[in-house]
Every structure is written in structure tokens, then in C-alpha cells.
Amino acid sequence: MPKKRSGGGLTGTQQAAKFLGVSVLAGAVLAGIALPAAGVLGLAAKGTVKGFDEIPANLKRPPLSQRTTILDSQGGQIATVYSRDRTVVPLKDISPYMQKAIIAIEDSRFYEHGAIDLKGVLRALNKNATSGGVAEGASTLTQQYVKNVFVEEAGDDPDKVAAATQQTLGRKIQELKYAIQVEEELGKKKILENYLNITFFGQQAYGVEAASQRYFSKAAKDLKLEEAAMLAGLVQSPSRYDPVNDSEEAAKRRNVVLQRMATVGDISQADADRAKASDIKLKVSKPKNGCITAVNGAGFFCDYVREVFLSDPVFGKTKEDRAKVWNRGGLTVKTTLDPQAQKSAQESIKDHVNQSDRVATAVTMVQPGTGKVLAMGQSRPYGFGKNETTINYSVDKKDGGSNYGFPVGSTFKPFVAAAAIEEGRPANQVYSSPYQMPYPASITTCSGKPWVNTMGAKLENENSAEVGPYPLREAMEMSVNTYFVQMIQDIGLCPVVEMVDKLGVVQGDGTKLPVAPAPLTLGSTGISPLVMAGAYATFANRGTYCTPTAIESIRTADGKSLAVPKSTCERAMDEQTADTINTLLSGVVDSGTGQKAGLQSRPNAGKTGTTDGRKNAWFVGYTPNLSGAVWVGSPSQQVEMMNITIGGRWHSKVFGGEVPGPIWRDAMTGALEGKEGTPFNTVPIPDAPKADKPDEDSGDGDGDSDGGDRDRGGNGNGSQDGKPGDGGNGGFPIPGISLPTNAIGGGEIQGATGNAANQGPTGGAANQGPTGGGDGDGEGQDRSGTSAGWD
Q: 209, CA 20 to 30 Å: which among 58, 377, 516, 540?
């Protein structure tokens, strides 16, 4: 091995190069890149040995990219993700046959020469000159390792990869200098180990451990002679000698390696002959890369974890820095996902909504007090096939979700009630709550400039039998629209704005909600299920809001721990306020619109929501230790859920308590099984005096006969009633909704599957699906500017 210089003298390699002369050094360059010797003398004018010595030798060897393993909270594997399928192993865990085979075929004098094999260079030059073409190269394993380092550093950037592999004299000279540095710093054993871990073996396998698993489903330390010889033969041309696609060519190349091993004395000729006589016997393991391989439907949660990593500054100052760490991989990411909750969510989804249904569902669960995301699933699986998608319906756009979220309807009303109670309104507050009324002429806002009803817009309750006066408890249980509009007329819009800000409630595109009655009372704008589950978890946590978190810990390949983002918890409302909301929403599942969602085994609370045109139906509910949000609807917002079959069951009209409610009930039941039930801190709410009202019909106001869920969107006879989106003669716009630019009749294409992801604000589809094509009922959604959140 060359020794380091003492007193500025040349190393052994440089002395040999000087002895042979610059022309031979140039020949070494050319031989190393397998070019004819013609033109060798052209390098002589470019410099001397002294010039070569002055070339910088500061090769940086970044950590090799490896697979990252994503685990659930119990340590079970969710998925593996990687830009390079590689598992780095020490030399002792690599079969001796593999070590000998790669040296025999790639650099048989590896232990005898320095960074440059001068004998090999001269032999290659002579052979190339004699043949008049390229007959033999002379790159050593060390030189090949250096080139692979350049390629690894280039990553997936095609321009950088091309620069790292270009066949030029300048790059080859630099490679030689780096090779000398590596020989001096690492030594032969470490170079061999690094080479076997960095080299590409085809079939997406980088490094010998991944290659051994890919082709033989075994560890590299267990490779037999003939298996090792086959892998060593792949290095020269992984595609040409690919045993999966051409076993005959692979066998020929393997036999060349075996014969070379015998020739250099690594194995006997008899052993080589026996191995050559054997067939190629593969046991191929398919690559398992990415969130598409996640278990228990956790592909969307897996993708959410990735998005969190790439967006959070705790993992790097810039997005490029964070992407570099993620792509390098080798991480073990332990997440907050609870396998019991995730399994229960997916089973409930499967029981209630089919993958091929015209509508989809998304379920998200959050732990009150910690913000931990415990479950996240949806009915259309993670993928690129029919009725599949890579758009995560549970999260905001920045985290891989739809552009705007989904209108939440009356699930927004508890936020208004909380704001009013914080303002000092009593828990039995009464408003006249007529069946129909105009929006207030003006309502105060935080800016001091009031919202003004310039268009004379009106609103109405579910049916004509809903006429007040009502106290808050009854208004919440029956989801009376006019009651809550009168409430914001009383307290103003500012307290609601301040409340939803404290609860982390934003639109799906990350922007604040419009300051107007419809979005801040009736839930007419799009919000994601994760945001809703997190906000309701605040009620369960007695008024303290905790930001969602998905990552518990990260360990690097060398065992070091990385800092991870933590949930931050801040008080959003008084405990008394939260306790009052818990009391009110317990009534919703006991005797109100959410009866079909109610849990029998433990205290629970929640709220239903059904939006204009029945394009969205929600149930958001919680126990003291788990909060969950369920959305059902068409991602494109093009399906009105009337006379529709969902999960094999026919529904004349879909309500928040009718389809989302049972999904929530079953998902929560399984998630909480075996866990102790704890009571809410409830408060007594005195009854308010009731005035005479018109008799209410015995049904639910939709013309259905079950007399059940009152969370609904039509009138008493199911006819067109003129509400926004129904196409009736009312047709009045809902004020306060600002539409995105070019929202009507078009939008951006951002696709994931062949299914078009239509997403535009008023029925104009802004296709959002990964390829933009499809059936028109794909993976985006309409931000309904006129949705009034009817219940």
C-alpha cells in the first residue's frame, strides 16, 4: 500500500507514475475508461507529475442512502421507503465467496497493487493497441468505488449523474487522485466493504445485502458459491446479465466469474465445474418500497409522515436540506399510529363504504391532550389504479390532501356555541329561531368594519316545523340553522374567528376562514377531517388545544436520535366552557341527530353535519380519550347523495347521522376496546321556558319514515326548496364566500390516478388527479361557494 509522504516527497504511486512518464499516466487514464490508447500523448502538454500532485484530493464520502423503516407506536412495521434500496452491512456479514468473486472478476490483483494497478494499465494498453479497439479496461476496485461515490452523491439528478459518469480525461484524472486518497485513508478491507455496499446490482437493489435479498431472499452472509458468482457478474452490466429477465445470459456470465475464481486460485477447478453445472435458482423478492406497501390501509398516514418530515424546519433549514436527509434514508421512524385504532378504522370503512362507490369516506382519529394522530384511513386505497388515489382526504393540501378540504356543515356549530359561552352567554340561551329569516343586515367583525348583507341573502331551517324559540341545548340537538345565525348576530363574528384560530381551524388550502356568517356558522367552506378531529379533541381535553403530531422518534442508521417536532398545547377556552360543550354534544348522540352514532359502552359526544345538496355528510365526535372525524362525499363534489347506494346499502337521502355516524361508532368501538372508559366533566344546564310552537311531524323532515336522524338537507316533502345548490326558485347566494381565481369552470390539473380529481369551486371542475384523466368523479373536490351547511 502506498505510504504517506514525509517531507513533501512523492508517494509510491506517484513515483511509479513519474517513472513511467506522463504518457503512460495518460494511458492509464484511457485504459481506466476503456478507451483505445490512441491520443495518449495529447495529455503530455497538459501537465507533469507535479501538476497531478497539485490536483485537490478531498473526496467526501457521504453516508450511503438506505431504506427508511416507518413503525407504528407499538414498533410494528408500517412500510419501508427509500430512494435506494440498500442495507449497509459490515464485511463480516458478507459471504467469503462473495468477497472473492467480486475481486476475482473485477480486480484480481486488488491486494497487490495500490490505487492504480500499473501492471494492469500496461497490459490493457498493450491489448487495446494490439486489437485496435477496446479489449480490456484497467480500473481498480478503488477507482470503481470512487466513481460510485460520485454517482451516489448525484442522487436522482440526471445532470449530476451524467457529470459523475462522463468519460473525460479531466474527470478520470480526478478519480485517480481520489483513489490514491482513499487507499491511504481506508485500507483494502474497508474499501472492499464500501464497494460491496455501494454498488448497483440491478432490480432496484443497491449493495450486496439488498441484492442477495432481491434475487435469493437471503442475507448476504449466507450466499453460496454459485449465487455469489452470479451477483459478482451483474456488476459489469446489471441489465444485460439480469437473471430475472435472461437466465441464460446470467448463467454465462456467472460461469465466467467461476472460471476466473478458479484461475486465480480462490476455488478449485472441480468446485468451479460443479457450480457451473448448476442451474440459476432464484427466489425473487419483489421490491417493497413506499407508502403503497403500507399495512392496514396506513398508506395515507405513511405519506402524511413523509410530508411532515419534508415541511418541518426541525429536520433542516430548507426543503432541499430536508429532502436530502429523507432520500439518504437509513432512518427508523416511530410514529404515533395506534395499530388497534388503525385496524378498527379500516374495518369500519370496509363495512360501510365500498372502494367502487360513487362517494368515498375518510376517517381520522386524534388523542386529546397529546395531539397524537392514532388512525387515518379512507375507502379509496393508496395507489394508482382504478378507484385508487394518492390524495389524502384527511389532511390539508400542504400535507398531500385535496385543495380545499370539504364543507363541514353543522359540525361547525359547536365552535360558535363555545365562542358565545366564552363571551358570557348562558348555556340555556334562547333565540327566537324562526323557520326562515334574512341574514342580519350587518354583523360586527374584528376589524371594526362590519360584515354587511348587501345581497339580502336569506336562510332557513331544515323544515317548516322547526320554529323557535329554542334554547341552546335543543338548538344543538336539532341543529337549528337560524338559532346559530342569531347567535353570531348577538356576539359578532370576531369571537368566532378568535375561537377557531385557537382551535387550529383553517380551510383545506391553509388559509383562514372567510369572515362571513355562512362559513363561520353553517360550515360552508372546506376543512379537513384531521383539523376537525383535532379541534373537537379540545373539548374532550377540557379546553386545551394540542397541535397534531405524527412522529414520536427518529433514529439514524448509526443509532443517533434526531430531534422531532412536538405537539404544542395551549388553552383555547375555559374548562367550564368545554364542559358545557361536552354536555351539549352528549345530548346530540343521546337524543339528537347523532343517535345512530352513539356509543353504548362509554360516555361520548359529537355533532352531525350535512351540507347543501347532500354533497358532504359528517360526524365528528369524541370520548374523553379519543376524538374522531368521519367525512363521506364525492371528492369531486359532483354527487348529491340522494337515492344512492353506499356500501351495498340504498339510501334515499344521506345524513350526517345516517352514514358517517355508524362509521364513527364502529371505528371508535374497536379503537377503544379494552380501554377504560372515563366520564366527562359535565355541567347542569337548566331548562329554559318554552313558548308554544307548531306541532312537529313525527318523521325526520325529509319524507323518510325512520323518524331518526334530523341532520338533513331537504324540506319536509323532499322537493326542491330553493336552497342554495338545490336548483329551486330561491337560488340566493350565500354571502361572504370568496372564490379562487379561475374557479368557475376550470382549474389546475394535479392528478394521482386515472380518475379525474375534479376540484373547482362552484361545480366547475378543477381537475386534481395525478394524471388528469379519468371518469370525472375523481380525487379533488369542489369548494362550494354557495354551500350553506344545511342540517
A: 58
* Kind plus residue range of the DSSP H or E element containing 587: helix 575-591
C-alpha cell of residue 406: 370539504
pLDDT tens digits for 597-621? Answer: 999 889 999 999 999 889 999 999 9
DSSP bridge partners of 631: 362, 618
Q: Beta strand pairing status for 470-471 and 430-431?
A: antiparallel
**Cell 344521506 sits on residue:** 654
pLDDT tens digits for range 309-328: 999 999 999 998 999 899 88
Whole-number Å distance between alpha carbons of 587 and 601 = 16
As a whole number of angstroms, the distance between CA 670 and CA 520 comes to: 33
Q: What 3-state DSSP class applies to 580? A: helix
Quote the CA–CA distance of 229 and 221 in Å, as a whole number: 14
Query: How far apart are alpha carbons 683 and 583 in whole angstroms?
Result: 6
- Burial class (CB within 10 angstroms; exposed 0-12, middle 13-18, buried 19+) of 719: exposed
Q: Which residues contact 323 (CB under 8 A, 6 or more apart)?
A: 310
Q: Which residues pair with 551 in a beta bridge?
A: 335
Distance CA 477, CA 362 (A): 24
Three-state DSSP class for residue 77: strand
First to last CA, the chain: 82
Q: Are 487 and 413 in contact (CB under 8 A)?
A: no
The rounded distance, in Å, linking the Cα atoms of 420 and 574 is 12
- Distance, CA of 158 to CA of 184 (rounded, Å): 31
How many CA atoms lie less than 13 Å away from 122 in the CB half-sphere? 6
Contact status, residue 473 vs residue 479, Cβ threshold 8 Å:
no
The pTM of this model reads 0.75
